[in-house]
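Figure 3 (text version): structure tokens given as input.
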């Protein structure tokens, strides 16, 4: 059983590779290293540097490496970038996914797990959402991912091919054993930004909007530990292998935390205070984006192991500390 993991040198993909290897799978990573890093590819996986949109390359890998399932993480994920350059997002996330799916069908790969996003819900009318909530993306990023879900669904109807699309909510944290984590210095996500403030890499954190219709006026999100998300991928693959139907599943704990809750957790866990300013709302932020988690638990038997905000923050902090220490050693060396 060899699994092809696109984007396996990235943040979420590398955690999934660890989980697959722990589950006894052979793993081939396909990554162009545009945002991922060779250093993040877990030991035991084979790295192939290349483009997921290269149908000939993927076809060759399927044949020569005996690939029988694909986990597709590769893609672009920065919402404002997608607004500024939509065609790049449709190329990278939609067109290249089409090529990958075509190569899978041509090569007889029947099982496909896709990294989708809560961004497909846009600004939902009610929260929590579930998989019956009508998608309504409000960014090219969300649309580019939803279009891929649609291609998968139509392909599964026409061919001997099944898929699971996992719609990620707010992914954070790092491997509890410190083997991989988030490295992108450009990360805009709340916990990453807060950790930069802890480490003095930025002077302060800005809270984007304190007048939302939520208990403390700041946005509510469903933060999920990246290792729990990685486990969901391994379970989703097992689901398809035992003949399970194609599924769209939301990945979150069903528990909301506000921006103020997260800031308080980071200060508490790090034991460091930092300046926090109130800033205007950021365009496109829904007030409340939380999912019900019943479906993924029922379909996959998924039991999260790290559903605790302080644990998520603690693992992210430990990774930042060890990563920065390594970078420093490298610079000195
Ligand atoms: N926030 C701040 N200050 C910051 C950074 C974030 O106040 O410096 C706030 C945001 O306004 C938001 C919350 O913290 O209310 C979480 O923001 P993130 O940027 O961490 O995450 P998002 O909820 O914007 O992003 C998530 C996923 C995306 C997905 C998007 C869809 O990470 O992949 O939801 O809404 F596209």
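Below: residues designed for each position.
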């Amino acid at each position: 059983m060899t699994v092809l993991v696109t984007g396996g040198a990235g943040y979420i993909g590398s955690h999934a590779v660890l989980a697959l290897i722990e589950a006894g799978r052979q793993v081939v990573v396909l990554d162009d290293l545009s945002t991922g890093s060779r250093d993040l590819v877990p030991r035991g996986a084979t790295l192939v540097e290349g483009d997921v949109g290269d149908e000939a390359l993927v076809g060759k890998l399927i044949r020569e490496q005996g690939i029988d399932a694909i986990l597709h993480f590769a893609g672009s994920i920065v919402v404002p970038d997608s607004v500024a350059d939509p065609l790049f997002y449709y190329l990278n996330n939609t067109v290249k996914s089409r090529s990958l799916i075509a190569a899978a069908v041509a090569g007889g790969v029947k099982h496909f797990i896709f990294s989708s996003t809560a961004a497909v819900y846009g600004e939902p009318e009610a929260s929590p959402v579930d998989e019956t909530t009508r998608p309504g993306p409000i960014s090219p990023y969300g649309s580019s991912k939803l279009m891929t879900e649609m291609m998968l669904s139509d392909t599964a109807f026409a061919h001997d091919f099944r898929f699971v699309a996992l719609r990620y909510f707010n992914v954070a944290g790092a491997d509890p054993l410190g083997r991989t984590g988030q490295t992108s210095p450009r990360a805009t996500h709340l916990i990453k930004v807060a950790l930069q403030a802890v480490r003095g890499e930025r002077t302060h954190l800005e809270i984007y909007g304190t007048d939302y219709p939520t208990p403390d006026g700041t946005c509510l999100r469903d933060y999920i530990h990246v290792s729990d998300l990685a486990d969901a991928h391994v379970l989703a693959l097992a689901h398809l292998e035992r003949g399970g139907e194609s599924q769209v599943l939301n990945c979150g704990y069903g528990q909301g935390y506000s921006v103020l809750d997260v800031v308080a957790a980071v200060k508490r866990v790090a034991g460091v205070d930092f300046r926090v300013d109130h800033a205007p709302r950021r365009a496109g932020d829904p007030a409340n984006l939380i999912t019900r988690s019943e479906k993924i638990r029922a379909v996959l038997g998924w039991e999260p192991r790290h559903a605790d905000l302080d644990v998520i923050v603690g693992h992210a902090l430990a990774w930042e500390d060890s990563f920065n220490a390594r970078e420093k050693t490298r610079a000195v060396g």
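Residues 119 and 253 are 16 Å apart (CA to CA).
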